Structures are given as structure tokens and as C-alpha cells.
């Protein structure tokens, strides 16, 4: 592709060199540069791509995109822009021929529920014969092919490449998780979102955003990139604020909730250990819905997914068939099968609100004790640690505080910070750094009427200790211990 085609509709400060040159690829990592590539010098939080410009030219780059002043380089076209990260997104979209312009891309943002909602949407679409893709925390899926996910929302270059691959196999829709980081760092710039969904906002990622207001504003950016509908949970106070903010936009606003004031809502809700039943009410139709995951949060997740399909023009029977056919999402309130009739639930609840939701759901049907195994991630928001300790203590009969992903921090220090919160309650607790031993202790102290919640890591199959990533899957560990227990 010619460079002059790639830089169409891109704001450029200056060009030094020829624009009638061939470009065969794009890279922002100098190690991936090949002959006739564009190298985009992205200024990151830890590294500056300008440092690797010379290396990229040696590897064959014939075009470099910079946001700093650079002296002319023989045989290399230099494109200066105000924001190289944003330019990376737009150049990538152009290079892959703007695949999202002819695709129904649904972006889901919020603190909790994104993974479940995107899986529900993909399932409803698939059951109605719509070829669909998924981009998210657990994996990326193109039809029936599944790829490991490294980030909730990949970098813009990888995203556009994925969308191009989807178009090549005639995928017509994609449900994707949109993280606050990706919105701030312009990874989703250049994507034509048909629909944006807001789930909720609770304390998370404040090590990055610094304040809850900044976090909310980051999420709100999605709703200025949509063309068909913005679907927002107005039972959430931040959702209500965002709804009021985006209401004047041309894009249609569809609200959802369970308190009756939304456009799409649930009534006559009945929750049991096996799931939830409720009546779905929309402006066009209403009818009974049955889902297999219990809890009020599950009702909210289902409403969000069904509201998306409603906005896309689906009928009640299509929505009902799709939502009722899904059994669950890996690591999201996932019940661990075992021969001893112990109830062990693994959940990705790693925020105060998510942990509270999970425990309150368990309280609705538990017959014995609630035993909670959890920790908090290292190098992340420290304020939530005692908050989560207090929540777990108030809603559990026994807590085992353990390691999550301590990263560069000392696990004991994280556990002590959680202990500050749990001491405010009357809950019995133990502190066991080794996560496997913590799960073993919980199982040892349980009987058939009790419920064990292993919270925080959900679907993750690893644990990050210092600079090492070790194999660790809560689900497999629990099954292994249950098999060994006599």
C-alpha cells in the first residue's frame, strides 16, 4: 500500500521525505520491523519508541512516525504528528482497510460484567445465525477459533488486524471488552462502534486513573464513538451521570436496569441456587427469561446483553433462545464440579463491589457457612485492600486471606493491609501466603452445606510473583485438592 493512502484523514504536523512509497507493514515494537515497514514511535508509560527509531531503520523501516523533532534521514520518510499513539490507531485502520466500517462492533465498558456480557452477546448472535467474534479478557474468538488474550483490549494495531481476519471469514459482528486503559491510551481510536454499553463503575484501576472522576471520564469516551445506540445501566449512579451527559448526542440512548425507570428492565425477579427467572420488559415486547447463573448481578449482565440485541433489531424469541442456552462463563461465578458434593465457586471478583455482589448472592441460598479465600493484586490500588477485607469479614463465616498476584510487592504486606479491614468485623480468619495451601485450608474446614468462594483470579491460569509467571489455576487446584481429600 502507498504511504499517501495510509495517511489519509490523519492530522499531520510535518512530512520530511516522499509519500509515494510502498509500505508493507506497521510496527510499534522495533523487534518486529521488516523491510518497508512504518515504525511508529509510541511514547509509552515505561519506554519511549523514539529511543528505538535507529534500530527500526536498520531493520528496514522506510517510514517513521514521530511526535518529536527529528533531523532528516536519507531514504527515510519522517512524519511528525501531535500524538503518535493516536496516529498508530488510525494508520492501522487504514492499512487493514477499515474493517469495522462494515461490521457491528459492540463495545462493553465498566468495572464489572464486561466479560460475561460480551460472551452473552456473542452467544445470542450465534444462536440467531449471525457470524460473530469476541475480544476480551479471557480470550479472543473468531467464529470457533480461540486465541489467548494478553490484554483485555489489545493495542490498536493488533485490534485492526483481528478485525481484518474476522472480515475475511465473513464475521459480521464482534462483541468486545473496552477497558478504561484502552480508551485513555487510544487503542480503540479508529474503530467504528455501532453500540456502546456501560455496566457500572466501582473502585478499580485508581493507581492509573488517580481519581474516580478520571476513571468515569475515561469510560465515557466510548459513547462518543458510537453510531447506533448507547446502552447504559442507569441504576448505577455513574451510569446515570453518563446517560445524562450523552443524551443530547445523535446516537440513540437506551437505558437498562431493574428499578422500573429504564427503557429495558427486569421485573418479577426470582433467584435460586440454580439461576434466576424474571420478566424482560422492553418498549416493543415482554416475556419470561431464565438464566443459569444466580445473583442480581447476573440479571444486570443479561439485561445488558439483551438490550444490545434489542437495539440490533432481534425479536423476543431470538433473544430468549440465545440467553437461555449459555451455561456460564469461565471464572465468572463458576461452580467447580467434584464427587464430594462440596460447593466451591471460583469468581473473578477482584474489586470491593464485585466481591460484595458475589458474597451477597451466595447468602441468598447457602445452608451452612460461607468460607472465602481471597487476596489483592500487588502494584495496584492499595486503598481497596482494607475495604475488601471488611466486606469479606461482614459477609463470611471464615476468611482465608492469601496471595493473589503480588507482582513486585511482598505478599505478607498485602495480606496485612487486608487484615486491617477484616479486624473491623467479627469474622474468623487465617492468613496463609501460599494460595494452594489457603484453598486446601478452606476445603479442610468445610462440609457439604458450606460454600467456598475462591475470589480474585477467576479464569486466570497463572500467578505473578516478582518477575515470574507461574502456572496456577484456582479451578484446577480446587479439583485436585478435592480429589486428594479423604
What portion of residues belong to β-strands? 15-25%
Q: Name the strands of the widest sheet in spatial order.
A: 9-8-7-10-6-11-12-13-14-15-16
Structural class: alpha/beta
Number of domains: 3
**Helix count, per DSSP?**
16
Short description:
By secondary structure, this protein is an alpha/beta fold.
Description:
The protein contains 16 helices and 24 strands. The chain has an 11-stranded mixed β-sheet, sandwiched between helices. Strands 17-18-22-19-20-21 form a 6-stranded mixed β-sheet, sandwiched between helices. Strands 1-5-4-3-2 form a 5-stranded mixed β-sheet. Strand 12, helix 9 (237-246) and strand 13 (252-257) form a beta-alpha-beta unit. The chain has helices at 3-6, 53-58, 84-95, 114-127, 156-168, 180-184, 206-209, 212-220, 237-246, 296-311, 316-324, 352-363, 384-395, 411-422, 435-444, 474-484; strands spanning 14-16, 25-27, 37-40, 63-66, 77-80, 104-109, 132-135, 139-142, 145-148, 173-177, 193-198, 226-233, 252-257, 264-272, 275-281, 286-291, 334-335, 343-347, 370-374, 398-401, 428-431, 451-455, 462-465, 468-471. By secondary structure, the protein is α/β, with parallel strands linked by helices. The chain folds into 3 domains: 3-95, Udp-n-acetylmuramoylalanyl-d-glutamate--2,6- Diaminopimelate Ligase, Chain: A, domain 1 (3-Layer(aba) Sandwich); 99-324, Mur-like, catalytic domain (UDP-N-acetylmuramoyl-L-alanine:D-glutamate ligase, 3-Layer(aba) Sandwich); 334-484, Mur ligase, C-terminal domain (Protein-Tyrosine Phosphatase, Chain A).
